[in-house]
Amino acid sequence: MSPHSTYESLRHLADSWGLMAMAVVFVAFAAWPFRPGAREDNDTAANMIFKDDDHGE
User: 42 and 33 in contact (C-beta within 8 Å)?
Assistant: First the structure.
């Protein structure tokens, strides 16, 4: 197998299935915070910056 055909094979794989895999991973990461059981985790993350706040005292 010549290097040129190896390159073409890997490029074809990346152009087709690699792009599809990246799209699936992106959609999964984008949808993860909106799953039904994530409300408590999201609230904890949103209020984490106020954890050590002493309200100016």
Answer: yes
Distances (CA, A) of 42 to 23, 47, 50: 24, 9, 14
Residue whose C-alpha is closest to residue 32's, from 42, 22, 23? 42
- Provide CB contacts within 8 A for 42, sequence distance 6+: 33
Contact by Cβ (8 Å): 1, 9: no
Q: Is the pTM of this model over 0.70?
A: no
Q: What is the pLDDT of residues 17-56, one digit of tens each?
A: 988 999 999 999 999 999 999 999 999 989 998 888 776 5
Please tell me the distance from the alpha carbon of residue 8 to that of residue 28, in angstroms, as a whole number.
29
- Using DSSP, state whether 42 is helix, strand or coil: helix
